[in-house]
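BUG: 3D viewer hangs when loading the predicted structure for this chain

Environment: internal workstation, default settings.
Expected: structure renders.
Actual: progress bar stalls at 90%.

Input used:
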Amino acid sequence: MKEQKFCIIQVPSEAVFFGRIGAKLPPLSLGILAGYLRTHDIDLDMYDLATSVDVFGRNTNIEKLAKFYDKEKVYDYIEGGNNAFFDEFAKNALIGIDWDKYDIVGISVGPDLTFLQTFCGMIIGAYVKKTYKKTLTFGGFNLTTYVAYQPIYNEIFEKFFDNLGYIINGPGEESLERLIRLIRQGYALGDAEIRKIDGLCYKNEANELVFNKFANRRVVMPDFDGLHLKEYENYINPEAYEENMVALYRYPFAFTKKMQRNALDSKYKPFLIIPYIFNYNCPYNCSFCTESNPEAPRPVIGAVQQTVSEIQQLKEKYKTPYFYFINNAINLSKKYVTEFCTELLERGIEIYWSDCARFDNTSREILELMHKAGCRKLVFGMESGCTEMVKLVNKKIDLSYAEQVLQWCSEIGIWAELEVIIGMPGETPEYFEESLQYIKKNINNISFYTTNHYIPMPGSIMYRFPEKYNITIESDKDLDKVLRLDKEILLSGRNPGNYNNTMRLYYYSEIGGRDAKTVSEDTKKRIARIRKILLGKVMKEMMTYMSKGYVDMSDLKELSDM
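Structure tokens produced before the viewer hung:
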């Protein structure tokens, strides 16, 4: 008897309803899983439900979406209760899938990090199990993120485990391959062999949740074959270089809805933009970051020859020169980035790309080499423009040198974007003013910056040793409160997929200083001030781009609402 196929399904979030901002990309997580499993002789099909505008039904409105936040009704449904609304949703979402081909179904719950997406995963899983009697396994960014916030989200893991199927957290490729093979050999969850799988979540004999350590990361060439790739096409005029680059790389969310509207103009051709990652994890120990945890995994970096070969294959296979690299930092070492760019050039691989980078491990010569090799944007994690704050959070960057790098990028033609964190412990009014003035001074060489409201992150140095930063960490949130907040955001018409409320569980008070409420209010005021600098700059640029026909009024509206 021929072995049945494995099936991967990525569930939708409310982003389908609101409309995604920016270029459309094939889902990298599915591509990595498919790339790994297929090269290990596991045949599969995959479905991205987020590509269907009608996935929630043609008459969907916000009030209907809010039904997915009714936790008790979702729990009742996955425990065997009847719910016509959830039945209809699942049936509609899964139209066209031939279930007879599959023995095991993997459901990816991510990457938008919303409860609606998590509950969609539960509902679809329950429907598939009830209707088609399939073995289920779950994973994805949502569930992996929840692990860090035990025990707040343990209730969700228990519901998955008790009613639906297997759960794998963290990198899924190796763990999923092993799980599939063991299930097909007749093993069950209670067997020791399955319980050894990295990333597996299960209950022990005392009925306690156990979370196995995550598997190691692997650099895998994504394989998007089998997806409806036309759903990810962006309409680009390859002859209009400036417009092309602005649409693809100029802004973090790229005001690229026009790339979908251009479908009716014969000058514009359909292209895929390929996401690809070839280094993971960070060797540095910034105190605000979860990677400062001593248990954080070590960096994994793809060999230059193999990585460039895979980029060449992806370019040729999907007939596109456009890439978004999603690395921790392209220049973790000068040697690596130099060899990488040189290899691209020596092979004559003409591509355009963006990535994250550090201010150190670079030079004008390296930046010029990167530009020649196709780099058009770099995102730098500066966090603060105050020297004392940079020292306090152990960022290990020289702000004077960073200023020079920003100028070089501007002169060379690489857009330099910043990540800035506001409200970190120790950020006095004076330190904030110094950071704000640094931004003002260098604004002409900064293409964009994202301002992030500081959140204490489990595992980080600040979270583990708050007394060193003269703070106490607190939380008054539980699952029900976070659900309520997310639902309120949904009903307001905003998209929680860009809000990450599920991670905003902790806050801090200063010992002998401001309480948590005052810290939060002060931080919001500071973010408003620093964003105002950017808004004026970008609005002026956008008016110029609009006069050239690169963007239109709806894009300006999106910018003003940010």
